[in-house]
Amino acid sequence: MNWVNLDWPLIAEATIDTLLMTGFSLLFTVLIGLPLGIALFLTSPHQFFAHRLLYQSLSFAVNVLRSVPFLILLIVMIPLTRFLAGTSLGVQGAIPPLVVSAAPFFGRLVENVLKELNPGVIEACRAMGANSRQTVLLALLPEAFTGILAAILVTGITLVGYSAMSGVIGGGGLGDLALRFGYQRYQTDVMFVTVLILVVLVQLMQMFGDYLIAALQRKKN
Known about the structure:
- By secondary structure, the chain is an all-alpha fold.
- The chain has one domain (8-220): MetI-like (MetI-like fold), CATH 1.10.3720.10.
- It contains ten helices and no strands.
- Helix 1 packs across helix 9 (173-183).
- It is elongated and about 70 Å long.
- The model has no long low-confidence stretch (mean pLDDT 85).
């Protein structure tokens, strides 16, 4: 493997593109998925706004989006992506399908985190006369913060893998670099380096997330 002849500036640019795709996609995923998860929880049976039809509709939509393979979603969303982002290529064009794919996944994780909370928290809030908004903002979300943070970590790692797949339609980043040079031009050294960088990124995210969650748990206890 010839490390000297590798185009390191191009690899660095692709790495930055992957970080940008992951970062912005994760931001929008949390902004959309967190309210979605809260809505799923609140409309589920025996909760504040229990509504069977609304819950089943939201749950069905989430399950449908989660069941569509990401590569197919990338292709299907090309017209919508062009409308929203102005292009279906590069970092800008990869963000909408990444968010559409990850937001339902994150929303379901948030719902599960809230359902795992001690029911006594809600009962105590009700006994003190707190309304639903106060209960969610001042009790449920602070109590579930560590679990939501873990869900963000899992979603972020998932987005790293999805961002690599976006290279199939010219989404930029390390996936695009691996496809154009590593696969189509048979440059195995480029393929190896891109995979290595992706592995390192995931490991760093996992280590930082684990450290942060452990620190919050120690502080909480």
